[in-house]
């Protein structure tokens, strides 16, 4: 069923239309993506730290946490490069 009241402002797709209001508690989707990135880094660092602690005590925990941070950085670079697409032709 079509709405004749919006004939002048027809949108091509649902995602082209701006949101009517912000989401709950004033947060938007971009705020949540930063929280997910921070949580991912924390989980990787904690996981590698725990493995390091099991393998080598306190020193292993510190080294494991640093390795977890390095792996997070490498994953970020790989995913960013894979999702950014090809550079424009000159």
Report what the structure shows.
This protein is mostly helical and 90 residues long. The protein has a domain at 29-84. Helix content is 62%, strand content 0%. The chain is built from one helix and no strands. It has one helix at residues 29-84. The chain is elongated. The model has no long low-confidence stretch (mean pLDDT 76).
Q: Which properties best describe this structure?
A:
single chain; 90 residues; mainly alpha; 62% helix
CA-CA gap between termini? 47 Å
| Largest β sheet strand count, sense and barrel closure | none
How many DSSP H or I helices? 1
Classify the beta-strand content into a percent band: under 5%
Tell me the overall shape: elongated
**Mean pLDDT metric:** 76
Strand/helix succession: H
- Overall strand count: 0
Radius of gyration: 22 Å
Detail the topology: elements first, then pairings:
Elements: H1 29-84
What's the short version?
With 90 residues, this protein is mostly helical.
């Amino acid at each position: 069923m079509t709405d004749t009241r919006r004939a002048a402002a027809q949108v091509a797709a649902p995602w082209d239309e701006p949101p009517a209001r912000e989401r709950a508690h004033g947060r938007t989707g971009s705020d949540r993506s930063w929280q997910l990135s921070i949580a991912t880094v924390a989980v990787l660092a904690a996981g590698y730290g725990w493995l390091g602690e099991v393998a080598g005590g306190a020193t292993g925990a510190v080294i494991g946490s640093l390795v977890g941070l390095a792996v997070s950085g490498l994953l970020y670079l790989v995913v960013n490069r894979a999702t950014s697409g090809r550079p424009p032709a000159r």
